[in-house]
Amino acid sequence: FAEGKLTKVFAVIGSGTKTLTHSGFLFGYVDAGHTLEASGYGSFAGGRIAGPVSGFIKASGLGSFAHGYGYSYGGATKIIASGTGAHASGYAYLIGGGINAIKASGNGSFAHGWAKTGNIYATATNAFQFGVGTNSIADSLQVGAGMSLRKTGSVFMKEKSSALADVAGWGQLWVKIATPNELWFTRDDGTDVKIV
Fold it and tell me: Which residues contact 65 (CB under 8 A, 6 or more apart)?
């Protein structure tokens, strides 16, 4: 294992926690219970974690990236973007009790992937999550089997003259040009209903 500023780093690791503190790349295989972590600015940690206990792939540096495959049969597997503007993506799989998580916990961070019997989380202000999961933090967006927009402030919509083309099974909420402007709902049969 070696590291250097602005250097590509490749590591094949049996166990232990390995951290890349400079900008660069860290790849490897780690037994569960240990960690691959990119803590340098703009750094990248990727690889595979497998075993009976918890393991982590982390992007904790500003603008860092964590990606990989995590497998556990009794612990927890977590791919985490905790740095501001960080990105976490991958596949997390679990047999038995425990928690799988692909988690964006840094401000403005992003979580994307698939977590079997677990969740994909966007738990920080202005974070974004793509996938099925839970989210109790305001000012974030979830897209998955359903969509959840949590906002403590206002949601702005630009006014326009009419709704878009109708789509069966879908409704539209939009703001109509007027003085003052008006809130409208359009049903899938094209019927426009003024709300305010």
Answer: 38, 43, 44, 45, 46, 59, 81, 86, 87, 88
Which residues partner with 30 through β-bridges?
49
Task: Say which residues have a Cβ less than 8 Å from residue 149's Cβ, sequence separation at least 6.
Answer: 141, 142, 155
pLDDT exceeds cutoff 50 at 76: yes
Distance of CA 170 to the CA centre of its chain: 26
What would the pLDDT profile of 99-118 be if each residue is shown by its tens digit?
A: 667 777 778 788 777 766 56
Q: Are the C-beta atoms of 57 and 45 separated by less than 8 Å? A: yes
pLDDT for res 177: 97
Residue 8 near residue 25, CB atoms below 8 Å: yes
**Residue 187: CB partners within 8 Å, gap ≥ 6?**
166, 171, 193
Condensed to tens digits (0 to 9), the pLDDT of residues 136-154 reads 454 556 555 555 666 666 7
Please list, in sequence order, all residues whose beta carbon lies within 8 angstroms of the beta carbon of residue 111, skipping any fewer than 6 positions away: 81, 87, 88, 89, 102, 103, 104, 120, 121, 122, 127, 128, 129, 130, 131, 133
What does the chain come to in residues? 196
| Backbone dihedral angles phi then psi of residue 118, each to the nearest 5 degrees | -150, -155
Please report the pLDDT score of residue 55 as a whole number. 74
